[in-house]
Amino acid sequence: MNISMPSVKRFLPILLGALCIAAAGSSHAERLKDLASIQGVRQNQLMGYGLVVGLDGSGDQTTQTPFTVQSVVSMLQNMGVNLPPGASLQLKNVAAVVVTSSLPAFAQPGQTLDVTVSSMGNAKSLRGGTLVMTPLKGADGQIYAMAQGNVVVGGVGASSAGSRTTINHLSVGRISAGATVERAVPTALGQDNMVQLELNDSDFSTASRVVDAINRRFGPDTASAQDGRVIRVRTPGSSDARVSFLGALESLPVTPAQTAAKVILNARTGSVVMNQAVTLDSCAVSHGNLSVIINTENTPSQPAPFSQGQTVVTQNSQIEIKKEPGQVMLLKAGTSLAEVVKALNAIGATPQDLLAILQAMKAAGSLRAELEVI
Asked: Phi and psi (nearest 5°) for 32?
């Protein structure tokens, strides 16, 4: 049986629509580690101030960044080099930088971390520079790591596109394994033989499903929900058994509840993304030369006499969009937001028109979904 390409193109939108409806209606289990995290098992941000030396004349201009000169003088004094009073330093090969990194959970002294080096002065480039030993501190002011190494600026080069020349960002570099952990962060994991799971998104239905799945797998009273986000889980006493238990807990399959409807609109490009099918109530919106009228009528269908059928009420929706006198676009389908957006795009509505209309629908109570504008 041969199928021509025009036939495939004609039925492709129908097939895609069917696939989208099937995907929206189906639910699948997720690993618990993808839905929740263990309280206390987290990263800690580190930051430090240092100097990058060895630049090829692309460092800070010392007349405009006096802190660079002060840092060099302080470093030399700590190394036993005393400069004569009133000495003027012209440092073209030095740049003051901020060094940032993240200390992962359970990191121990001797482990290495990747660091990011960012210029804080007016250096033109950090390419080819070397970061001198820089202490990295946490939010409590304690030193947790020491950073040092050669700075690598990724993607250095220039590319021409027509009459424009684009030069890559040269004031930020990275040092792989450029920091060494010097202090571990104490954690109270499993204190009192209890851990707390925190859902990524607060949801009472999902929290209830997680508790049921844990209790079915590990026995009654193993887990209990504290609220819509926090779940208390009882763990074994020994550390080895606790690690095995948490490993099995993270791999536990859980089917999350359906999330609340959400509509995301990009005000610059007019892109509209919905996490599920969003329906609209009856409303009428007028914006400039655009008018959107949505009417929903309930049509009852009575069963035949002496039959065992039931009365079925169907919704017949009519979407009418006008742009200019005499130009009308009429869609007879369900009151779907996707159809309204499609019809607006078909008559050339701008992203600002979409934004104003969706905000008006939300304010009028016709759009029963969270509207987020980015």
From this structure: -65, -30
